[in-house]
Amino acid sequence: MLYIFVCGIAFMIVSKVLMVQRLDSDISTINIPKLVKITAPRGNIFSDDGSLLAISMPLYNVFLDMSVMDHDLFNNEVSNLSSSLALLFKDKTANEYEKKLREYQNKKNNKYIKLRTKVTHNDLTALKNFPILKLGQNQGGLIAEQRPNRENPFGILAKRTIGLLRESNPIGIERAYNKTLSGVDGWQLRQKIGKNFYRNEESQHNVIPQSGNDIVTTINIDMQDVAENALSNALLYHNADWGTVVLMEVQSGHVKVIANLKNNDGELDEYYNHAIAEHSEPGSTFKLASVLAGLEDGFYRLTDSVDTEDGTHKFYNEIMRDSKKGGYGKITIGDAFVYSSNVGISKITDKYYRNNPNNFIDRIYKMGLCDPLDLELPYPNSLLIKKPGSNGWSGVTLPWMSIGYSLRLTPIHILTFYNAVANNGVMVLPLFTSSILKDGKKISSTSKKIINPAICSKASLDAIKPYLIDVVEKGTARSIRNKKYKIAGKTGTTLLAYGVKDKNKKKQYQASFVGFFPANKPKYSCIVVVNNPKENGLYGGNVAAPIFKEISDKLYASDISLHKSIEFIDVKSELPNLSQGNTKDANLLLKKLSIKHEVTNSNWMVPTVSNNQINLDTRNIENDFEKGVMPNLYGMNLMDAVYLLENFGLEVMFDGRGYIIDQSIEKGELIHNNTNINLEASL
Prior knowledge:
Layout: H1 2-30, E1 34-38, E2 45-46, E3 52-56, E4 59-65, H2 71-89, H3 94-105, E5 112-119, H4 121-127, H5 137-140, E6 142-147, E7 150-151, H6 159-162, H7 172-176, H8 178-182, E8 186-194, E9 197-200, E10 214-217, H9 221-238, E11 242-249, E12 255-264, E13 267-269, H10 274-277, H11 287-296, E14 305-307, E15 312-315, E16 318-321, E17 330-332, H12 333-338, H13 342-353, H14 357-366, E18 384-385, H15 397-402, E19 407-408, H16 411-422, E20 427-428, E21 433-438, E22 441-445, E23 450-452, H17 458-473, E24 488-495, E25 509-517, E26 524-531, H18 545-558, E27 581-582, H19 583-592, E28 597-599, E29 604-610, E30 613-618, H20 621-627, H21 638-647, E31 651-655, E32 659-663, E33 676-682
């Protein structure tokens, strides 16, 4: 019995010794300093003028080790320290801070305080000069733990393109150039001094991290701001779901603007890069490719005629419709493009490619419109160009494809194609970056990449370009015409979920405009897409085109290179600059000025200059009125035009002042009493 008792006591003693040894071992293991990886500061992302688009601004988690503070010093300075903390952070009163500090100072164990998280560098600098804390980590107890932090100084401007580096689904330039931006991580020896508390130690093994390289983008922050403001206002005005704008330099392919905004009940933000990732039916903007295909294959000239009938045409069991009720009748193919006649474009495409639709598809591919773009930014490739014999191909696929249905393209694909037309047929890859910097010095540049040296012949381009200008001058985008410079482009209005036969479902549209400017010597190309506008218009001409014009107007005003050279005028000439108008008034003025001139017998004239003499030539306005058709009023004084039209019995509405730049009823169209006409004038 005694033996058993002694053995039990011995066992308890041995167990206790082993437990102590194990605990000592664990503690010693915990307290061994370890090398910890220090993430390198990430490189910056700049705009084309050096403005910061993304920068690493470190934040700090700040702790206090109360155990290292001298007791007397603490009692003498705690009130001053508390006041300083309250003044800096403004989250507690000085009394609250002092109460908390004294509480931890009086603790026997766990004398560590998490003072604050996400402290800025400036605030940390201030803390290092506060009472007690200024003595440093070993005597003042201040411990700062750096945490990575990425700032975008311009907020949501180009946010989806600049991107986010996150564990799940990184995006944009941050993702594409992650390796370049990341730099080389360093190492720091750290000693654990408590739960979740560490102290940096000096060591020969410490390695200072090397900052990542900087990326210079092609984005111009001023242009981006202009575009996003124009897009924001339009989304709110039309109560649209989302919109995108991309603006490119024609020759280089540099993307100067890429804006993507979503409208959440009046709150706008960038959630998705629609410009490069939204695959949808482009609608009438695709008609340019359809017409160019026919020109390239030599099937027609743009002066050839096509019968748009009454605005409807049946292909098998499907009816093609024009937006204009009653149609356009028999017009040229060029005018079918200008007025965006679905019937006209689909009929000529079906006529010449019906028996061999593969030829049409091959032509589209040769133009480089269907291939995925090798963009710097990764994007989902869901391009769709149906081929004969494939799933879903039918007898109506070809005519509907010719007007931009039965296929899926991204806005940047459409823009790249139009940019090639502006660039004399040379298709270039859109670029988002221009160079990489190391310590402020350029170490590499992004070169221009030609995708297709010639999307079509020069003859076809020369043939179609005037009609792209006519779209703006007299066609579906005439609302954005101006006198200062010419715009070339094409409107598009896509019926979303086309073919869905649900009378209870409200129709939704996607409005677009794509083009380039100045039309005579293009410097920029631009596409605007607005999804599901619900108020104040639905079509590309009155929803998307005005956004384009607002952007192009501001760029034209600010970029002197876009302006025509000043032509010096002979100062000896004293001939006045007359506008078209009333012959009697012009004759009286020239007589008063004693200027030699010849006068027409007509009541209305157009001035010409010949041999330093002004001729007041006949303008056959009255003849047009007698025939019951609308005369050409362009260039006429607004008040004269209003007088004429009201005398004929028309109801006139007008906007602006000066000279006529737009009339809602085109020259030659039939008119009668009580017809409504809108005039736009400008100085």
